[in-house]
Amino acid sequence: MHNADRLAPLAALKGREQTHMLINEIYASIQGESSHAGRPCVFVRTTTCNLRCSYCDTAYAFTQGQAMAYEQVLAKTLSFNILLVEITGGEPLLQPLAGKLALDLLQHGCEVLCETGGALDITLMPEGVKSIVDIKTPGSGEAAANDYANLKRLRPHDEVKFVLCSRADYEWSRDLVRRERLHERTTVLFSCAFKQVEPADLSAWIIADNLPVRLNLQLHKYVWPPTKRGV
């Protein structure tokens, strides 16, 4: 599938890019990943993604969603009275109003996370947003899409995540972390592609290499059934 075909759902916003967002779902749950795992969090899941990772567990967000007025998106997000919000997808940085949403949430006293696939410039989000940047491994099938300039854009409160499909993915990621000294600049997360790498194995590899990274499990898949949506 060509990139233009992947972005076709954004046509629903044609002429309304400054008044509407393409939204898959907005819900409250427990944050399942990153250093914020375990905290109550509101998720704003946008529709459409420019990537097709082999392990993607939110493929429904490629096309499913509706154009929502920006004011409605902001109001629904704030209605839960939870001050941790993650803007995710899909790929949220494809949404013209994602940065405005983040800024307005910050101004309402929220702590804002942005989960992004790492192929787009993370400075599209305003200062104060905590970007969680997914560096695509070879096993993802999308490593060629990585915007490595993002590694220079990282701030101490940002995080980088590697989703590992194999031992080879682990070694590729380990070498990148060491070469770029990522652990000296930000939190580095190593995650198992669900049911492809066992947490015990990944833990053993990290310990054996004394690697300064954080084991990142998808907590929500252990609390609820792995395919359950809206959690």
Verbal overview:
- This protein is α/β, with parallel strands linked by helices.
- It is built from seven helices and nine strands; from the N terminus they run H-E-E-E-H-E-H-E-E-H-E-H-E-H-E-H.
- It has a single domain (3-223), classed as Alpha-Beta Barrel (TIM Barrel).
- It has a nine-stranded mixed β-sheet.
- It is globular and about 50 Å long.
Describe the structure using short key phrases.
231 residues, alpha/beta, TIM Barrel, 9-stranded mixed beta sheet, 23% strand, globular
Estimate the mean pLDDT confidence: 95
CATH architecture: Alpha-Beta Barrel
Could you state the oligomeric state of the chains shown?
Answer: single chain
- Number of helical elements: 7
If you consult CATH, what is the topology? TIM Barrel
- Low-confidence parts, pLDDT < 50 over ≥5 residues? none
The ordered H/E elements are: HEEEHEHEEHEHEHEH
Write down how many β-strands occur, each being a DSSP E stretch of 2 or more residues: 9
Please state the overall shape, judged from the principal axes of the Cα atoms: globular
- Gyration radius, in Å: 17 Å
- The CATH superfamily label reads Aldolase class I
| CATH C-level class | Alpha Beta
Cα separation of the termini: 29 Å
Class computed from helices, strands and strand pairing: alpha/beta
The number of domains: 1
β content, as a range? 15-25%
Largest sheet: 9 strands, mixed
Largest beta sheet: strand ordering: 3-1-2-4-5-6-7-8-9
Specify the helix fraction band.
10-25%
